[in-house]
Amino acid sequence: MVDPKKIQAGYRSLLQASKNSVAPEDNIRIRKALDLAIKACGDNIILTGEPQILHALSVARIIAGEMGLGLISIITSLLHDSYNKLDISIQQLEKEFGAKALEILKGFSRVSSLESMQSSYQAENFRKLLLSLADDVRVILIKLVERLEYMRNLDDAPEQDKLPLASETYFLYAPLAHRLGFYNIKSEMEDLAVKYLE
């Protein structure tokens, strides 16, 4: 079971990171999203060996703190992994968090179901496809941040997964970050990927 203290610490860190972009009264909505995510994630562990809920909290913290995005982005990044397993109807979800949040989650679900392609020619097509599939750029930003969070914790991933992830990050996600103007994320992704590719 995921240590509740770690969830609480991640939540406090998220609120701290979002204090400049979210009104204090909106923290209730962030907490509701977190509670839904906790239920949906359960004890699931992601590729890097970290609990899925802590990964979602990290992604939300990066979205708020390092990218300065607001409430909807924070809510959708908390729910990005658990959207298809939520214990709530789509209508309730829309009522609770708004049509925009629902649209981003649906977009994220579509983009996540894409299989990545390997060759550089295909990589360019994949990037174009990603950008065209996302009606809202925040879908892509959450995808980028999710990948950045994976890369930051890649040491703990199984050996056979490190190289493909690093390669995909270097050839697909770093150029995508560059194209969107997130040069610091691009650089960090490249540095982290090269560590495994060299």
SSE order, as H and E? HHHHHHHHHH
Cα-atom Rg, whole angstroms? 16 Å
Determine the mean pLDDT: 91
The N- to C-terminal Cα distance equals 36 Å
The biggest sheet, with number of strands, parallel, antiparallel or mixed sense and barrel status, is: none
Q: Please tell me what the overall shape is.
A: globular
The parts where pLDDT drops under 50 for at least 5 residues are: none
Share in helix: over 70%
Total helical elements: 10
Question: DSSP strand (E) fraction?
Answer: under 5%
How would you characterize the overall build of this protein?
The chain is built from 10 helices and no strands. The chain starts with a helix and ends with a helix. It is globular. The mean pLDDT is 91. The longest helix is centred in the C-terminal third of the chain and has 21 residues, at 159-179. Helix 2 runs antiparallel to helix 3. It has helices at 4-18, 27-41, 52-65, 71-79, 90-97, 99-112, 120-133, 137-152, 159-179, 183-197. With 198 residues, the chain is an all-alpha fold.
